[in-house]
Amino acid sequence: MTDRSGTEHDARMDPWCAVALANGDSVLFGFALLHPITGGLAWTRSSAIVTLDAVKGRAATQSGRLYGLGTSVELAAIPSLGLEPWLAFDLLIGQRLADAWAVPPISADPERERRWVTACKMARHLNLATPSFTPAAVNDFLATYQEAYACLPFVRSGRP
Question: Whole-model pTM?
Answer without folding.
Answer: 0.91
